Structures are given as structure tokens and as C-alpha cells.
Amino acid sequence: LVWGEAGNVRFMPELIYFIAELAITSDALSLDQLYGKCEAAEWDAEEGRPFRSNRFLSSVIRPIYNVVFDEWYDYVDVDKNDRDKKKLKEGFDNYLPAHVANYDDWNELFLDPERLVVTLVLKDGTRLFEQPAGRRFQALARLDWAASLQAAATKTHREVHSLWGVFGTTHRVWLVHALLFSMGVVAVTEDPPAQADGEQPLGGQTTGVRFAAVGLLVPAHALLWWHARWQVKGQGIRSSRSCFKFAKTFCNGVGWFAPLGTYVILRWVVEQGWERQRDLILILHLIVSAIGFFYLLIVPKSSKRYKLFPTTRVPFHKRCARYTLWFLVLGTKFLLGTYIFRAVWEATDELGIARLGRQTHTELFLVFHSPVFVANALLWISLWCITFFLFVSDTQLWFTIACAVLGVWTVFVQRGCRCVSWAFEDAVAKIPARFSERVLPRKYASTEDEASGKQSFSPSFPALWDRVIEYMRYEDKIDNQLMGDLSFSGAGAGHHVYWETLQKPLRTRSSSASAPSTGTDDPATAAAPGSTPRAKVKVPDLFRRKSPAEMAVRETCLRDPSWPLNPDVQWRILALARGLGLPMPRPFRAPYFPGITVLIPHYGESILMLKKELFQDGKKEVPLMHWLKSNFDSEFNAFTGRMQGRVTGWPVAGSEWSEYTEPQWDNIASWASMRMQTLWRTVVGMCMYHAALQCHYELQADRSSSLADPTIWDPSDCFTCMVSMQVYKFFDKKQLEHTNKMFDKMPSCLKVAFIDCQGKGRGADVDNVHSRQRRRYFSCLIDKTSTVLPDFTRSPKLRIELPGYPILGDGKGDNQNHAIPFMRGHFSQCIDANQGAYFEQMLLLPCALGEFRSRYRGDPNSKKIVGFPEHITSDIGSIGDFAASAEVAFGTILQRTYSVLGGRMHYGHPDIMNKLVMMQQGGVSKATKTLNLSEDIFAGMDFTLRGQDRTIHHCEYFHLAKGRDLGFNTVLGFFSKLSSGTGEQVITRQAFRLGQILHLPEALTFYYAHVGYYFTQFLVSSSLPLLVFVWLLVVFSDCEGSFDAFLGCRSSGGRPASEIMANLLGVWFSWLLLLFLVATSLPLFVEVWMERSFKVAVLRFIKQMCTLSPLLFIFQGKIIGHYVVNELRYGGATYVSTGRGLPTERRPFVGEPASSGLQLGKVGGLYLDYAAIAYYDGAVLCAGTLLIVFAGTPSTPVAQSQLAWIFFSLGLTIGSWLLAPFVFNPYQFQARAFRQDLRAVLAFFLEGGGKHWVEWYDRTQLRKGSGRSAVDITFFLAAFAAMAWYAMMNVKVEAFGRIFAVTTVTVNLMMLIPPVLLSLVFCVLISILTLCRGTMLGKAGPSKAHFREKDRTVADGGAPVGAAADKHRSCTCCCSGVPLLLIALSVLVLDVAEATLGVWRFYQIGWSRAFVGGLVLKWCMVCLLLHIAEGSVRSRFFPALRCLGAPLDLWLHAHRMARDVLTCWLILAALTPVVLLNMLNDCLCPGLSLHHLLIYRNPNHLARQEA
Fold first, then answer.
1. Taking Cα atoms as reference points, which of 815, 765, 784, 636 lies closest to residue 716?
2. What is the pLDDT of residue 276?
3. Among residues 985, 993, 982, which one has the least CA distance to residue 1016?
4. Are 931 and 1127 in contact (CB under 8 A)?
5. Of all helices (H) and strands (E), which one includes residue 778?
6. Rg (Cα) of the chain, in Å, rounded?
7. What are the DSSP E strand ranges found in 853-917?
8. What CA–CA distance (Å, rounded) separates 1061 from 204?
9. 1161 by DSSP, 3-state: which?
10. The sheet that has 750-759: what strands, in order across it?
11. What's CA 112's distance to the chain center, in Å?
């Protein structure tokens, strides 16, 4: 009862335990003694009792809830649609600040008895624990929860949105890479020449001394880690001080800095020339350093801060296997790394770069101020930094390849290493025997008769298999003829298969006359094999044993006539055959099935498809229904045949959708809903559990049990399908109708939990209802038997009052939490509303539940999360296939490997959990706002952290279906949500502690299986721009062709820098993108190979390559990297509602133009979606590549061949970042639509002086008033790049001064002055004119850091309609009648002219590289100034400047508009040739669109023509 009424407090299980313990030990004998006596004035006459709320809820739970609410929220209001509207506190919109307490902080307070005794105080100032033990529960009503749970006293972990938060979690990962990198660099470094005076180089003279320097990583890393731990350490445990802790910290510091001391001694001994002592000190130093590395890397942390519970023990053989795999991964990486390090070392030698560390103190002092040395030093740092960057980038890719190999090996081990028999067996033919042996063991105890070649299986199997075939026919996966071929009975017309017939007992079916007879009427009492002769049946040809030769012929040359053509049916049969060949626990027997509830959270997803969603008469685009029929043509034909046999007058209208009547459309919509990602499909699939359990009862129930009595047995006692409909109360009439249809179809097992609300009433203050909430809230349960009210809703059967508004998080976790009290049984399965199921897989549920079978009380085998793979069904079109491929690989081979390596967590979906164990840790998910956006994985992380024999398994004999997003934008929207959630996940205490307490292999697996994947996407996406920068730095520092003697050119007398870089790039990077593509494709390839055949795997791979999958994956990596890094910088993670339908509508470029003129009717398009994420970087990368070509490429064939793959990678990346969204956009290249795009672009920049662009830029990029600082890590990296480029140019400036005997100050000044003076003066003049006219740029308020552009309708007056309308009204950007586009172009021309003037002298003497390099330097400085200007304009103090800030505001907007204009026209210019080709395609082959063939893998659909 304590748990049931706890509401949101259930997320704090230790607090629940505490309250329950006090309640158990209480000596109170009545409610008045527990909660205090009620005064007569407090009676509520309407309710007839002292409190409307239960007294425990109002006195104990609600005060705790109010503290939680006050910590995060200001109020919950009611909007005009009568829905609740919650308002976070000021500054909490992007993320909860690090000092704010959350569920985990409060929960951990009750795990710490020392803090608990001090913290819990009553309202009179006394402490709770000063009360007698039996009176403490009564004192809870007098507890000052606000003071007791204040963040300053309870905060134990600060979720810091910075690199310190990331480093604290992942420091072991970085130390591993730093150690390997340092050792590799030292290994390839040659000894410097000995100095005549015996002075030692800074890096050391010998290899041993240089290796000793690697030990300095220990104190450096320890210092960084100490600071990171301090940053994330909460105030609640920061304040605790003691002499013991101080002494412990001091001793740890001495230990960490011991390698520094021994290294100093070593260098002093070397300076003194003491050879014998040097070796001893070197050995001592290496031992001390090795101990430090061992402690930092290998030894898991066991202090109370990290390890709250004993961890689960791992068997020795598993631990050895995990260490072995990571040794091989890191060893392979290290060996390849040394080859790369050697290439970099040789390149620096050929380029004549002064290598740091090889100089003595004297030499360094002499050359420190030399421009050449500074330029060389910065270039040397840049080369090795990018080398380390690439070295870190590829680890996850090697890990993925290792997972693919280990996944294959695991499959072999699961099958007893019988590789040959497994590879050549006919697994489908063995389905009857294996199913009988493993799923129906009580009815079968024999094996196949090898001598006769005839199969022996359970007498119950034919009837059960026929039921499976009937389900396939009902789902229209097969037609009547194939149904007869696949079934044992061969009787019964397929068009007579209805839902009602599928619910009848197996023994009463009309086809039972053809089933094998055993002489008894009850199949459950049939004789076992060997006791009486069994009847012979005609086995379908599907189960006929085939030799390997016949199988090979039918696979490659001839089609098997018994093999269905439907790919979904093929997969289902193969999945069943494959699963039955895997190890499988003994199934539970009816009626002893343990209870299980399937929980499906639902918010606003479609329940049933509507006719208007499938078909709208008169619409120009191809209707969605037409695409569905095209992709499921055979299934639609089977559906038509079934309907004609059932419904009188069903037309043979085919795709003439207007010919169908409304009642017929209801059936069509139901058919379509089973092929789309709808709640209807999910619920129908999950409710097959009910029928499957009934079949088990009929076939092999224990009739000796009284529970098996037909009057008692009900599968609904074992299984419940519960949909948690968060907004059921606000459903419209159509949604309520669809919900009632679900109740009508699944009356026995379907239940719906929803959140009800009503006014607070007169007793709100007495009940402690929060003063800033306007309602009371209730968890309610309804089912088929609930009374239907006049408004079509149902009256609740059960109703639990909640302490307050329950959705305090991002929605899903809270929605699951409120429904948990209604869940029945020991086990739960959390399902998303886009999943489905298959009846033959549902029959394996007793086996899946057998995974939890306990042999004795307290058996840890029951403390499990058991995961299962999913069959991705949304592989329609190229995008659907790409998304499905990633899901298939992750859900099968990768999770199989993660389970072996100890890195698998809980991912929701088909995982089955012990509900009682999950309740002990706070539920099946977590729900802190923003922090737990990826709510499911935290259940697995907490499960692992609680240890105590808890384990997470992955089994593959049981499958569910799952749909995925099908459109380009929806797929990337889903990944943006995952990436943002991962950015929050890495800074949580769960990730932090797992990073410390796990052994190194498990820690590395956990990182690279989750957070590391997303960080790697960022690293790989950033590698090419960084590589291009270093490439440019090297080639632009090369000889100019004249006055080379004055330049001291490093390639004089040797190879040109371009050839040296070509050789380096061939080793440096050529493998990385190839490795990226291999790692992306290999897991899926080997999984399809194992599941189907090598031929199918090859064909699928080729098909994906031909449909441009690399474009999507490269762009996807860019999106993932952007969102995960931005989440750490700015926060703002929110739940992204993604569309789940077929992408049949074209998304415009920037919006939809009005019917005439240069006006926009709707703002929103692909350019606005991804400009800041990918297009800008793509344009810069394109410009960098052109500069490389300008600077000169090598002329030798060998060097050119080495660069071929690099330029291919650059072209692929540039094409992806600039064009991928348009390539996969339906109807993108139609001439009429492209002309509309051109009009829309002109209107976007010109209408109202550019007001549409200003509103978009201010709201999505500038975010005035947000206060975001301009000085961040991006700024410092850009500043370093500009500094390195300036150092390179300074060498040429010095040479210029020596050649022409002029002072270099003037040249330096002209080169360093940013080209902004003319443009600033111009903007000041324009601003003065603007102020004279009374207009100025307006202000757009702060918004989410992660803003995904939403389409906005434009009103007749030209202002956007929607949330941004009010902001837009002050945003009149007609500067004194001058369009902002004209100002932007003028500013661009002035900047170019001023920049050219500053470096014109270089052009005059023929130094083209210096001239272009100077322009690049000035562009870098302008970018830095624009970055600073943005930070200034978005600051909270900028509005105070008023008119004085107008020139800076205008200058900034003009430059940013110029950037967008250039980027837009670059993309449009690249799209134009494709549009022309598409026009030619339409002229020559109007019925075959190559573009549609690319994105849909289906030619164009043309409507019928009238004649």
C-alpha cells in the first residue's frame, strides 16, 4: 500500500523502503494515532469523510511530492484546450542546473544512515531519529520535508554540462588511448644526435628515458581526474570533512605524483652522467608508473561513493574472454598505429619541421623567437594532434568489427560448435520435431527416425501448426492456395478464417477431422510416443527433408515451389527454425504459467489509420494507400479474396480507391493499420500471447491440478496487455471509437490505464494539494467491462489518487510509472507503440519465462533482464532499409556480443523483466526531466549497479516485430533524440559509477556500446575538416616558385610538400573512411549471411551501396555528432515526436511560395532544417578542397594514386553534407517543384527586406537573450587554427621584408587587420539612416538550444503564424527601405575588397600561395569576430545598449545572411544538373522515375488516364 499510493515517489525506492520500515515498526493502533485526529471543521460534506485524499497520501506522500515539484517547476496551469501546461523554473528550460537535486539525490540520502540521521528534521527543529522507534512513522506528518530534502544537503552528484562531466565518466578510455599513443610515438622516435657539450635534449637522449616520460601521464591524468571528480561531486558530500579523509587525500596525492618525482630524479641522474644509478632509477620509475597505470586502469573503484551495492560476480572464463578480446582490439590498433606514427615521423623529417623535444634548453632559448621555429612548432603540434584525433576515432570501428567476429563465434558456441551440420542442415524441415521436443515436451519424447527418413513429432503439433497458418492467412500474408499447401489438414477455405474462429479451441475447429487421431478425444491426454501407435499424417512439403545439394540448387537456380514468396513469411519460418535450433529452457506448463503484463506507453500515436490519411480524392501526390498496395501487393490481393468471401458486394476495384464505400474503407484502414506503425497493430500482436497460452493449456495442461479445471482456467489470469494512455481523458471522438474497437476485439486481456483529473475541491489545502496546481490527478484502469459513458469514455474500475501532476519528466517514464500498480504477475515486458508480434513466436512465451525459473527461494536466476531481438518490418524504400539494417545489426549480433562482454543494458522494447526486482530499484525506467530522456537504458544501468547477482541476458530464439521511421527527416529526428539523450546520459551518476566500478573490459564495452558510438560519429565527422586544415597548412607553407632562397623553403632540394602530404595521407587517413564503411556494414552483412545465405547478404549490400547508403550514414554521423556535443555544451534535450508513415510528400527548400509574387505562404524546409548542422560545414569543406587543388597536387602517378581515395572521401563527404537531404527527398527534382523552390528562396531573402530570414536566424541560431557565451572550446580551437595559420604567414612576411628591405611591421599590420573596417562604417551609416526612419532590428527571445525547425504558416500580412508570431512583430528588418540582402551583398564586397587590399603585395610579386593564404587568414579573423559578435548580441546586457548596438547587430546579420545566400546558391547550383537530368528522364521514360527507384526502390506510380 505504501508503494501503491507513492506516485512519483516510487522513483525513490530507498525512501519507500524507509517509510515502509517505519510503518511496520510503528506502535500506533488507529489512524488517529498515525496521522493525528481530524477536526470536525475539516470534514468535506460531499465526500462524507475527513479528507478527500487518503490520509497517508495527504500527510506523508504529498509533502514529499511537493518538494520534488518545487525543485523543478513553477506551476501547472490549464490551457485553452483544457490540458495541463507545466512551467519549469526560470533557466531550467534547456536542462536542470548542476546544483538542482533530482530523484537519485533524494533516493541516495536514504542509503546513507549517517547523513539521514542528521538531515531529517521535524518542523519544531528536532530530529526524526530522536523520536522513539515506534513513534517515528507518526512523526512523518510533522517532518519538514522542504528543509530535509534541500539540494544543499542531498546533492551527491552534479550533472555538469561540460567536458569535466564527460571526462569524469570516461577518463579510463582516454588514459588507455593516451598510453598507447605515447608508447607508439616513443617507439618510432629516433635518438637525436648527441651534443658536443653533453647537454641533454628536453625529450631525452635515449629510448629508455623517452619511455620514462610516458609515466608522467599518471600524475597528469590523476590531477585531471581529481578535478573532474570535484566538479561532479555534490554539495551534500562536499561539505563532509575529517582528518581521516584529509590524510587519505594527501596519501593518494603522494602516490599519484610519485612518477613525477622519480622522473625528476632520473633526469638529474642522467644530467650527472651516472650510468649505473640511471638504470636503477629507470627501473624504479617504470615500476612506480606501472603501479599507477594499473591502479588507474585495471583496479575497479570500491569506495562508497562509487559502489553502493556489491557487484555481480563474473565467471573467470568470461572475464578472461573479455580481456582477450580487448587485448586483441587494442593490440591491432596499436600495431597499425605504430605504422602511422612512423609515417608522420618521416613526413616531419622530410618537411624539415623542427620536432619538439629534440632541442636542448640552450637551443630552445636561441630559436624561441624565430618565426620559422614558431611556425614549425605549431605545425608539428597540429600534425600530432590530428594523429591522436584519428587514433582515438577508429577504436569504436575496430570494436564493431571485433563484435561482428565474436558474434559469429558466439553463434557457433551456442550450437555446440557443430559448424558443418549447422551450415548444411535443413532447419525448416526440423521444425516439427524440434518444436515438439522443446515447446511441447509433455507430448513428445522421441526423435526423428533416421532409418526410415520419416519424421516423428508430437500428435498435437499438426493442429497447432495449422493454427499458425490460419493466423498467417488472417493477416493476409498468404492466400488460400498457399494456406492449403502449408497446413497439415489442407482443409478449410482461407476466406473463412475470421478473428472469431482463431479464438476457438483447437479441438473444435472444422479442420480437426483431418488432424492425426490418437484414439482420444482430448489432445491433452493423447498417448506418448511408444505407448500406442500414432496416426500418420501428410506432412507439408515445406517440412520434407532436403539434401544439401537440393537446397543449394533451389537457393541458386530453381525456386522451391513449397517456399512462400512473401518475404515476411519467409523470415517468420526461418526465424522459427533458427530459434528452435538454439538452447532453450524447459517451458512452463499450464496452468502453472507465471503472470506477465505487457506494458505499452501511449501518448498521441495513431491507433487506427484513417481514410483521410490513406487517400484524399483530388490530391496530386500519389496517395499513401497506393504505396502500401504497391509494397504489399500479394497481401492486398489475399485481403481482397478474403473480403470477397466474407463481405457481400466487395468490389474488384483494385487501386481505384474512390470506388470503395465507407464501410469497406473501415476494413481497408484496418488492413493498412497492420502494416503501419500503429497502436492497433501493437495491441493485436501482443494479445496473441493470450491465444498462445490457451493453446498450451489445450495441448499439454496438467489436468490433475484443480487450476486446470475449465471453469477455473483463464489465460487472462496469466497475461494482461496494458496500454498506458496518458491523454485518454482528452481523446477526441474518433480516438475513443478506436479505443473501444480494441476493447471489442480483445475483450479478455486488454486493459487501459490513464491519468484522470478534476478540480482540487474545498479540501485541497487540508489534503496538502500543491497551491500552484489547479487539479487533482488519478491513475485509472478501464477494460471491456467498464461502463461506457455518454461521451464515449469508460468509467474506471480502479482509481488511485496521485500526489500531484504526475508528468514531471519527459513523459514516457512517468507514463509507465503511473500504470505499474495495475500490472499483474511477477514479470513485465515493456513494448513501444510501433511494435508487433507473430503467433508462432508467441507460442514460445513459456520457454522465455523459463529463463527466470528458480530452483529454490532466493535463487538469483530470477533476478534477470532477458533481452530478445526484433524483426524490423519497416524496410520499405531505401531510407527504411537503411534504418532497418542498423536496427537489425544492433538488435541481433551486437547485443549478442554486448551480453557476452558484459556491456548490454536494458533498451526497453521486447525485454522481459522480473517486475518485483525492478520495483526494488524504482521501476522499469527513470524520469528526471531532460536528464533521463533515454529513459529505458537507466533501468539497465541501475540494475547493473545494484549487482547482488543481477544479470542481463540476451536470447535469440524469441522475436517480436518492430517498425522504424521511414523518412529522411524522421530517421534523423530519431537519431537527434538518441544523441541528445546520450549527451545527458554520459554525465549522470549511473554512467559515472559504471565507468569506475567495472573492470576495464566491461568499462570499455559499456562506453563503446553506448556513449562511445555517438562520440565516434563526432570524431569521424570532424576528422576530414581537421585533416584538410593541416593539409592546407603544409601546402601553403611550401615554396612560392620565386625567391625560395629567402623563404628557407623546407622542400628545397627535395620533394614538394604536396607529394610528402600525399604519401602521409595515404597512410594517415585513407583507411579511416573505408574502416567506417566496413564497420557500418559488416555486422549486418555477417548476420544476414548467418540467417539467410551469403548470396542474400551480398545482394543486400550491393543494393544498399547502389542506393547511396554511404550518403545517409555520413550525414547521419554528422547529425549524431552535432547533437551529442551540443547537448553537452548547451543542453536542451527534448523528446522528438517522429513520424512513422511512408515519406510520400516532398519537403520544400525553405518554404512554400504564395500563389503569386515573391511572397512565402509557409516557412520551413530542408535548408532551414540542416543549415547550421551540416550545410555550412559542407560549404567550408568544399572551399578547403578547392584551395588544396589550387595550391597544387602532386604530379607523380604514385602520389596521385595515393590521393585518389582521399579525394573520393572528400567528395563523398561534401556531397553528403550538402546534398543528402535533397537526394532522399521525394519529388525533389521535379522541374515544377524546383521552380517553386527558386521562388521561395528569393522570397525568403527579399520579402519584407528579409524578415523571414531574420526571424529564422534569430530564433534558431542567434537566440538573443539566451546569454550563451561566445568563449567556449570551439572559440579556442578556432583561435589556435588562426594562430597556426598566422605563424605560417609570418614566415613569408619576414622573407618579404628581407627581399625588399622594408620593415615587416607595416606588412604584418596590413595582414593582421581584420577586413571589417569598411563594412562596419557602412553598417553605422545604414543604422543612422534607419534610426532616422524609426526602424531597427528587433529582438527574438531565448529558445531551446536544440531547436528543430518547424513549419510556420505566414499570415496575409506576412508575419508567421504560431509561437513565433509575437516575436516576429518586433522584427521589422527593412533597414531604411534597403533590403537586408542588398546590405549583405554590399558588406561581402567590402570585406573582400579590404581583405584583398591587405595582401595585394604578395600577388604583385607572384606569391600566389601567400596571397590566398593571407585571404584565408583574414577570413579566419572575420569568423572569430563574428563568433564574438554573436556572443555579445545574445548576451542579456546587449538590449541595454539600445541604439548604440544597432550597427553591430546589423553588421552581424548582414554577414550571416551573406553566408546563407552563398550556401543556398551553392546547393541550388549543384541540384540544377540533376533537375535537368530528371526532366530528360520524364520525357523519355515517364513511367520510370530513376529518383523514385533510388529512394523507394520502386518506379513512379502513375494515375489512370481517362479516355
1. 784
2. 78
3. 982
4. no
5. strand 775-783
6. 35
7. 864-867, 870-872, 912-914
8. 28
9. strand
10. 798-801, 775-783, 750-759, 719-725, 596-602, 827-830, 912-914, 864-867, 951-954
11. 34
Reading phi first (left if > 0) and then psi (alpha if -120 to 50, else beta), residue 1213 is in alpha
Annotate 1240-1260 with DSSP letters as a single string: HHHHHHHGGGTHHHHHHHIII
pTM of the model as a whole: 0.91
Q: What local confidence, expressed as pLDDT, does residue 1195 receive?
A: 73
- Collapse the DSSP code of 1151 into the 3-class scheme (helix H, G, I; strand E, B; otherwise coil) and give the result: strand
- Look at residue 1200 in the predicted model and tell me its pLDDT: 81
Cell 490513464, residue?
754
Q: What is the pLDDT of residues 1254-1291, one digit of tens each?
A: 999 999 888 887 767 777 778 888 888 889 998 888 88
119 close to 129: Cβ distance less than 8 angstroms: no
So what's the pLDDT on residue 613? 87
Do residues 78 and 84 lie in contact, with contact meaning Cβ atoms separated by under 8 Å? yes
Neighbours of 1119 (CB within 10 A): 21
Q: What is the reported pLDDT for 1249?
A: 87
Q: What is the spatial distance between Cα 978 and Cα 1014, in angstroms, rounded to a whole number?
A: 9
Q: What is the pLDDT of residues 278-332, one digit of tens each?
A: 889 999 999 999 999 999 999 999 888 899 999 999 999 999 999 999 999 999 9
pLDDT for position 522: 40
Task: List the grid coordinates of 357.
Answer: 623535444
Asked, as a colleague might, if the bond just before 591 is cis with ω within 30 of 0, I would say yes
Which stretches of the chain score pLDDT less than 50?
39-50, 447-452, 508-532, 1051-1052, 1336-1347, 1362-1376
The stretches of 499-656 forming alpha helices (DSSP H) are 499-502, 548-556, 567-580, 611-614, 624-631, 633-646
Q: Which residue's C-alpha cell is 527461494? A: 857
DSSP structural state of residue 1438: G
CA dihedral (339, 340, 345, 348) positive or negative: positive
- What SS3 class is residue 1459? helix
Neighbours of 675 (CB within 10 A): 23
CB 443 within 8 A of CB 458: yes
* Phi/psi of residue 416, nearest 5 degrees: 70, 25
Identify the pLDDT of residue 972.
Answer: 86
d(CA 573, CA 543): 11
| pLDDT at site 1384 | 94
Residue 947: strand, helix, or coil = coil
pLDDT at 626: 85
Q: Of all helices (H) and strands (E), which one includes residue 783? A: strand 775-783
- SS3 assignment, position 793: coil
Cell digits of residue 129 = 531519529
1217 membership: H or E segment, kind and range: helix 1197-1223
Question: Could you tell me where the DSSP H helices lie in 257-315?
Answer: 258-272, 275-293
Q: Residue 928's CB: how many other CB atoms inside 10 A?
A: 26
What distances in angstroms separate CA 1448 from CA 552, 1304, 1451, 1461, one per listed residue?
74, 32, 5, 20
For residue 235, how many C-alpha atoms fall within 13 Å in the half-sphere facing its CB? Answer: 10
